[in-house]
Amino acid sequence: MAATPALDVRAAGVVVFRPGRRVLLVHRPKYDDWSFPKGKLDPGEHATAAAVREVAEETGLHVRLCLPLRDQGYAVAAGHKTVHYWAGRVVGDDDVSGYRANDEIDGVRWVPADEAADLLSYDHDRATLGEALRRRRRTQVVVVLRHGRARSRSAWRSDDAERPLLRAGELQAARLVPLLAAYGVTRLMSSTSRRCLQTLEPFADTTSWELETTRRLSEEGASAIGVRRVLDDVVAGAVEGRGTVLCTHRPVLPEVFAALGLGDPGLEAGEMLVVHLRKGRVAGTERHLVR
Prior knowledge:
The protein has 291 residues and is of the alpha/beta class. The protein contains seven helices and 14 strands.
């Protein structure tokens, strides 16, 4: 009889900070351990969305993701477990004094960072804490997004600016909603082309944030100077804790990345590069694709 293949369990969590160098820890009575809020991904769920959801479920706090941290990987009874981690900050009230203990989490505590290492139960969590402390600085997020899958140019006989998303692209747009929310995106900027607008409309409809449009991000109206002016405005107007998403086209993306001081990573349709800025400079990037 063939051996049952080992499972690769995927989970996500956040090392959450608040002012005063305090970090959020949770206690699990089943294991009698202290760790960071984390949990398994639901079927079809993206790790970014799972990380934010798990913090909310385990602590009652809403967080936004900041710089990514290295994955944790270790053996479990079912096979191997990978935990994706980010540093994070609370959005809104960070008071946990009213938390109600339950069978899964019976303690939630803000702990001074220099005491957290002693309270944490596992070496891999202590290593993650050390990395998070080095990457806990506040950042602003600019999400550069290539629009979802669209009708092909050869099959479209009308104005190219009116070329719409395919059904697969519409599904990508819907699945982008929790990813953009995870980074605290509140400013939405799009090319005037229909396929870009359709990519951001589900997020705009869900959040009620205004959807701004500019021809400077369209294939027809883009130029190196125009794109740089858009990015200069975004970076200059960046407010801590409020992210911006720019939705544009493959031919325009090299100019967007050049304006950010980055090389073109060659995004697929429906893929985004999350750019973390500190004092106007790139502090880190991460790529995410929705299918």
